[in-house]
Amino acid sequence: MTVQPIRLFGDPVLRSQADQVVDFDKELRTLVKNLTDTMLDEGGAGLAAPQLGVGLRVFAFDVDDVVGHIVNPVLSYPDEEEQDGPEGCLSIPGVYVDTKRRQNVVAEGFNEHGDPIRLIGTGLMARCVQHETDHLDGVLFLDRLDAAGRKDAMKQIRASDWYDLAKPPVVKTSPHGRGLFGLGR
């Protein structure tokens, strides 16, 4: 198993836009495996590369017994229908707040080998795909909340065991090393 530490709220990598994947190689397949193993170990519905400290546009998902991943996702929405329900994040453990998302989404991208894929999601899968794609753009679900929801989320964060205002967030070194995929990070 290749479970990796997950970056927590306050880590700057979670607020950075991820780069397009250009090399579909062994390193990318290792990243996909790490994402999938970590997500499954934590019991999450999804996990994006920035949550492991890697600034690349890839995420894994596990929704309704469908486990997979998508590289360089581009989203489109077939309609305007919305859903509103509890949403959480492995980078903000224990915090769940009702968040509005689109009910239906189409994600087009690639698998780990560079083959084109298309994922059509509704309900929880649509929520997961939107949430993880937001991570690739440096957006957290907290940014999608109204003022009352954000206030509630921040209250939960400040009360959590993992959050400490007296010390800055710990920024760990990526387990994938500097210069992975030629990024020089």
UniProtKB/TrEMBL annotation:
GO terms for molecular function: metal ion binding; peptide deformylase activity. Its EC number is 3.5.1.88. It catalyses: N-terminal N-formyl-L-methionyl-[peptide] + H2O = N-terminal L-methionyl-[peptide] + formate. It comes from the Bacteria. Binds 1 Fe(2+) ion. Its cofactor is Fe(2+). The active site is at E132. One of its GO terms (biological process) is translation. Fe cation binds at C89, H131, H135. Pfam families: Pep_deformylase. Keywords: Hydrolase, Iron, Metal-binding, Protein biosynthesis. Signal peptide: none annotated. HAMAP family: Pep_deformylase (MF_00163). NCBIfam families: pept_deformyl (TIGR00079), PRK00150.1-3 (NF001159). Removes the formyl group from the N-terminal Met of newly synthesized proteins. Requires at least a dipeptide for an efficient rate of reaction. N-terminal L-methionine is a prerequisite for activity but the enzyme has broad specificity at other positions. Belongs to the polypeptide deformylase family. This is Peptide deformylase. It comes from Winogradskya consettensis.
